[in-house]
Amino acid sequence: MSAWAGVLWRDLRLALRRPGQVVHPLAFFAVVALLFTLGYTPELGKLRQIAPGVLWVGALLASQLSLDGLFREDAEDGTLEQMVLSGQPLAALVLGKTAAHWVITGLPLTLMAPVVGFALGVPVAAMPGILCALALGTVSLSLIGAMGASLTLGVRRGGVLLSLLTLPLAVPVLIFGARATELAIAGEGLIGVLYLLGSLAVLALTLAPLAAAAAVRIGLE
Amino acid sequence: MGGYAAFLWPAYAVTFAVVAWNIIAARRAHQQALVEARRRFSADADGDAP
Amino acid sequence: MDWTWFHRLASPPHIYRVAGTLTPWFAWPAGLLIVSALYAGLFLAPPDYQQGEGFRMIYVHAPSAWLSVMIYGVMATAAAVGLIWRMKVAHAAAASCAAIGASFTFVSLVTGMLWGKPMWGTYWVWDPRLTAQLVLLILYLGYMALRSGIDDLGRADRASAVLAIIGVVNLPIIRYSVEWWNSIHQAPSVMKMERPSMPFDMLAPLLMMLLGFTLLFAAVMLVRMRAEVLRRERGASWVKEVVS
């Protein structure tokens, strides 16, 4: 098994031991949608109009919740140092951890979105498009989040700072993702925007692990 | 100024207030650094007193 | 090509002296240009046929917006140099830029809002440029927060350098996505003075202001850098000589 796959598998198994931590972001996502409904209106017609924003902001904030622990626990018990010293390309190991984050948080959020969307008045025909958009978007969000988490490794109360650092970087994902959702709801062609989301994901896949690995090395000095 | 005066003057005022702040703050930072350096060397000269 | 001058710049006492010598060469021309541009912009340039006197906002808004973006670029470049060549002086340069850049980003937002109010009747408009400036301000604040959040200076330097580089790579993407977002939703656009066909009377003060502000930044940044270098090298013997 290659190194990054090993890291991925390990993180997945660790996460399974703590189902509460896994469910937390998902519950948060649902709560955000609930709060917007209660704070705004019960009318599905009106909710449908804000659904793109609510879905994406909700997904963004929810995926942030599990980011803080991405490197912190391994840093605390010395595992991260072992990864740095292991001689394996650190970027690959970081990619493994980020992939685990996506499987544990990003992917479930994506799968939950149709349900949450349905509660916000989103038509069923829009669901495939929304699934594609969120699948691509959450990949970028996990990668951007990994960069933020690695940078804030040595910072006390790094959680708040993490959001401050990550959110500006996530703006393009949010803009394209919400637009894709909007088009899906309107029944219009969204393949162009999906390509935009896809290119963001590819860019993130190539560059983010390198930046995060550099930051991990700096953070462990 | 055709009714825009109420907006132009505050805008220019804010801009040049920030310009002034930049100049003043930078010079103060430099002065402070010099004072601290001076203090450190006189403290070292007097010996490491508690 | 002889790179000795570059490597000599890495020496803190050398950069301290060079910065001190250069500062007036930037400061005085800056002052002259800005004062002349102010006079020309406020009194000599004719009113715009569409916006009347309101267009004069450009003489403070455009230079601040230009500085906000350019300074981020300088900061990221200095950070990259510091990271790649391990030059502490470069990290000091990056640190010196942050507050200046953030302050001018703030000015660009305020002047943008004051430009919008008489045009659109509302102080805030999600114009693509204002929105992008807001995101830029948050990027600056994040950089400054990360720096102050890490106690060890070396680590703070290197971590914030990585952040600055990430930010500068993202900046065009963010700006593009915000412009795209804005065009899709056809929100009102406050700044319409981008036409290159601006008459010379209007353009000249603007160019003078842009250059003047750039030189001003250089002067202020050099002063801050001297302070930064002094602070970092506190115990060194060359500092002792400078101070006494």
Task: Give descriptors for this structure.
heterotrimer; A: 221 residues; mainly alpha; 9 helices; 84% helix; B: 50 residues; 82% helix; 0% strand
Number of helices of chain A: 9
Strand content of chain C: under 5%
Number of domains of chain A: 1
If helices are DSSP runs of H or I spanning 4 or more residues, what is the number of helices of chain C?
A: 8
Low-confidence stretches of chain A: none
Quickly give the structural class of chain A: mainly alpha
Question: How many separate domains of chain C?
Answer: 1
Sum up the overall morphology of chain C in one term: globular
Residue-averaged pLDDT of chain C: 90
Mass-distribution shape of chain A: elongated
Looking at how many chains there are and whether they match, the oligomeric state comes to: heterotrimer
* Average pLDDT, all residues of chain A: 94
Instruction: State the share of residues found in helices of chain A, binned by percent.
Output: over 70%
User: How far apart, in Å, are the first and last alpha carbons of chain A?
Assistant: 29 Å
| Overall strand count of chain C | 0
Secondary-structure element string of chain A: HHHHHHHHH
Written account of the structure:
The complex is a heterotrimer of chains A (221), B (50) and C (244). Helices cover 84% and strands 0% of the residues of chain A. Chain A is an all-alpha fold and 221 residues long. The longest helix of chain A is centred in the middle third of the chain and has 30 residues, at 90-119. Chain A is elongated. Chain A starts with a helix and ends with a helix. The model of chain A has no long low-confidence stretch (mean pLDDT 94). Chain B is an all-alpha fold and 50 residues long. Chain B has one helix and no strands. Chain B has one helix at residues 5-45. In chain B, 24% of the residues are buried. The model of chain B has no long low-confidence stretch (mean pLDDT 86). With 244 residues, chain C is an all-alpha fold. Chain C has one domain. Chain C is 80% helix and 0% strand. Chain C has eight helices and no strands. The chains are: A mainly alpha (221), B mainly alpha (50), C mainly alpha (244). The B-C interface holds B 1-5, 7-8, 10-12, 14-15, 18-19, 21-23, 25-27, 29-30, 32-34, 36-38, 40-41 and C 34, 47, 52-54, 56-57, 60-61, 64, 99-100, 103-104, 106-107, 110-111, 114-115, 117-118, 216, 220-221, 223-224, 226-228, 230-231, 234-235, 239-240, 242-244.
